[in-house]
Amino acid sequence: MGVRGERRGAVRGSIGPADTNVLPTLAAPSPPAPADPTSDVNAFSIDVTPTGGAGEPSALLVSVHGELDVASVPRVATRLRELADSGASVSLDLSDVTFASSELIRMLVTEPVGEIVAVSRAVDRVLALSGDIDLRRRPDAAPA
Description:
- By secondary structure, the chain is an alpha/beta fold.
- The chain has a domain at 45-128: STAS domain (Transcription Regulator spoIIAA), CATH 3.30.750.
- The chain has 3 helices and 4 strands; from the N terminus they run ββαβαβα.
- Helix 2 (103-110) links the parallel strand 3 (89-100) and strand 4 (115-119).
- The longest helix is centred in the middle third of the chain and has 13 residues, at 73-85.
- Mean pLDDT is 74; it is low at 136-142.
């Protein structure tokens, strides 16, 4: 027989009945590294470029980059309203949009956009959902 207190078939040095509730301590997972804003290919941004000549009234091109979703569309809409309220003629370049939700259609119907000069394939797919409504307002605004 074995040593007193050992269970039958137990090997000396193995964990005994009193040690079964001892679990190894696991280290807490390390927090994720901070995101590098320059590495996010879908980072959202809006650029405004003057396009009118010296003698022309204020004309601006608003270029949108990244994703147009429920969080970013209101930011674009607000910027379009601000520019239109200042008396500028506003054109919209959506050629660098990587994702577009149906919120884009609502924005294009309700906000002051003179013309859409370019669209990405992501935007073109959403505009196709609009059916008979021609939101591009310019025949040469082909998908980029």
